[in-house]
Amino acid sequence: MNDQGEWLVVKKKYGGLKGKWSFPAGFVQENESIEGAVVREVKEETGILASVQGVIGVRTGVLEKGISDNMIIFLMRAHSSQIVIQENEISEACFCSPNKLEQDPDSSLLLVEFAKRKPKTLDPYYHFNPGDQFGYKSYTLFL
7-142 belongs to which homologous superfamily? Predict the structure, then answer.
């Protein structure tokens, strides 16, 4: 989200959301926290520098071939505004108002539902340590 309350959305060039507005997304890499992954993916796909503000949703499902497909949706604050798309994956990216996205026939179902519901945020807490016996390099609890 930018300072005007607009959401950063992308149109992917592949997959089930090809040609549809959706949130930037990607996968967590080895030795990476999930909040590190979302910051990296947003930067890679759009060039936008952003920080995690909280969790606003979880999506879970199982694909036809038995593959578990899960997503955690984060609220992020944009700290830059110049969009530079990752051209091999993204055809378009923009900041757009939730109201416009709710009405746009090119918006994914997920975007439309988020625009309608205006979800609450689970806030990140970085000061918890569950114990040295676990060996965490970093630890974030969302409540």
Answer: Nucleoside Triphosphate Pyrophosphohydrolase (3.90.79.10)
